[in-house]
Amino acid sequence: MAEELIGNCLVAQSGGPTAVINASVAGVVSEALNHPCIEEIYGGMNGVLGILKEELIDLAEESQQNIRGLRHTPASALGTCRFKLKRDQDYERILEVFEAHNIRYFFYAGGNDSQDTADKISKLAQKKDYALRVIGVPKTIDNDLVTTDHCPGYGSVVKYICSVVKETALDHEAMGQHDLVSIIEVMGRNAGWIAAGATLAKGRENPHDAPHLIYLPELSFSKEKFVEDVQGVLKKNKYCLVVVGEGLLDKDGNYVANSASSQDAFGHQQLGGVGDYLASLVEENLAVKARSSKLGTGQRAAAHCSSQTDNDEAFMAGQAAVKAAVDGETDKMVILVRSEGENYQCETGLADLSEIANGVKEIPPEWISEDGVSMSAKFIKYCQPLIQGEVEVPYENGVPSFVRLSRKRIRKVLDPHEFE
Amino acid sequence: MAEELIGNCLVAQSGGPTAVINASVAGVVSEALNHPCIEEIYGGMNGVLGILKEELIDLAEESQQNIRGLRHTPASALGTCRFKLKRDQDYERILEVFEAHNIRYFFYAGGNDSQDTADKISKLAQKKDYALRVIGVPKTIDNDLVTTDHCPGYGSVVKYICSVVKETALDHEAMGQHDLVSIIEVMGRNAGWIAAGATLAKGRENPHDAPHLIYLPELSFSKEKFVEDVQGVLKKNKYCLVVVGEGLLDKDGNYVANSASSQDAFGHQQLGGVGDYLASLVEENLAVKARSSKLGTGQRAAAHCSSQTDNDEAFMAGQAAVKAAVDGETDKMVILVRSEGENYQCETGLADLSEIANGVKEIPPEWISEDGVSMSAKFIKYCQPLIQGEVEVPYENGVPSFVRLSRKRIRKVLDPHEFE
Prior knowledge:
homodimer; 420 residues; alpha/beta; four-stranded parallel β-sheet; 15 strands; 32% helix
């Protein structure tokens, strides 16, 4: 048994929101209530940014309904940030805030950049001999964290995209007999997991079901092959539905379509427009009509069509983070571990934060079919279980009803922190 | 009582699909079974185009499950077309096909162009003394048919868009404190009903809820005012969510954003890109980041988030069409009539096809607030009831499960028709 560490806990969220990251917070809060060593349950507003500003709220003050409502509320109920801690004094400030509020447990839900931040906070606490247990909670629609089988948030975005693809395909199928090329642009900066997931919209029975072509950042894009691929589909089918990940790269590793916008705080390029670009390629090279749609931010927040499996796992990951910390673990991230065997089962495990930080998990090459535009049975076997089950979202007045935390602030005790 | 007309009935679908046009077909089939004067129940493939080609299917042969499944299956199960009948010989061919298959009842679900076609078929039958009863079934997400209170298909697209807007707004709200302008482009060629409906995503309690700005084709667009509007929102709110109808017009009546593509068969311009255009205006004129998304075809087929009220009314309109025809009515379209009184109730009525054909119902000016970018209480009172209730769509393997008709073909008895 680890030494009992008595004190307060803090949970915060970082990076792009998902449909289920709040379910992880609900998991943390529910589990924290079970452990007397955890005295107060705080939430940090807007990730590390709010912690720097000492903006903490009292999650134990939230109503039961609010915490339960987090299970179906998308986005980040605590607010999020893309702020990158760069200076030593910022890391030191974090610890100063922790010390001022006797925070001994820190749970950070986020992607690889966030786990990197958590790792550095943990290392600094060790160096300064401040007793702190830091456990990361995996979160990203991109599904690109290493060591975990998959990431909470991924199954839900795939489920929504598959529903949209299937409905769009039915619409195209119903339209007359004209050739039509339809491009759906989905998120996915460095890895094509999201675009790949769209393959689950295909029925098992009909090989001609949409999506007909899937373009992934994992394979360098060739205009000539794209035009040939589309022509090939239109020979067999009256329409061609293409799903493309926003981060498509050319053979030199440059984004195929660059929006005018600049980079985000982590130096990632802001993307957009690859769907329109592919549509223009079709219209220029083939005498057929092309349309594009871009699901935008809504796709990662689509609780109204989210996966119960994903939601359950997000909640479980939050719970597991608390259990691990209470058991004495630190500097780890909860990972999802798929059990061996025919039937899908998922448990949690732990991996070192340093292993996760800044790694990117790409789709294994053998999960992409040889044609480069469809997914192999291995991928389907991997992804299919993740989108099972439908989260029941309550509706009020015809629209989904989500909770807003009451956000009772913890009184600040420190002087303001100076930002760059 | 009208004279009993014994013979077969034919139902067909035309124009852009919706989430509930198949519910209208289910209504026609269910009701037709109740009337012995209707002998066979046929479906015409791809609207008038399939009728010209004598492509008919036997709907009575479909399983009960299939007909029931049409209630939640989006798009057009019979196929649809945007083919415009122009030549006298085409109209005559339609009657020839009707005569060959003893079709005495024709139900055509579609928008104003389709009702115009139905009207002309009906008039020709009268002129040629061929006993035929023609009843139109209203259908359009655009909600722009005259005489009917609203159109089946509209409530569902609004419900889906409101859900996406609400979820997107939560996501933006969760993101740090940067100014962000987010544009969601929705359908709506000649009238802004769809964009206007997005106002229902606002909560009653918070006037700062999204959408903050709504741009409608009804009001001519001014770049300068747009930039000012956005600035005004960003003074009060950290992000600005804009909903814009694709058919936005400038002061000279030209589309604000024109895609490269040409016109459709009815001479309507193919639209797209107004969202990207507004985003570029923001980035050029204000030092803030702008994103746009375009829901595309999927929005009109989004059965997974469709309105039960809309679905029930679509079914009811199908039933009412059959009842009216059996009662001796012809050359009419079913309309939806809202009862007086505080609680929403909707009945069906009839209007002359010639009244509907090619008319366009715009939003009454007094339903748009004086600021030109929000909707008045009158609009909300009108629209709110239409999105109530959630259609329960069955899921299979994590994705919505829709029916495909078995489409048993009726044997052709005529020579092929020569097309232009």
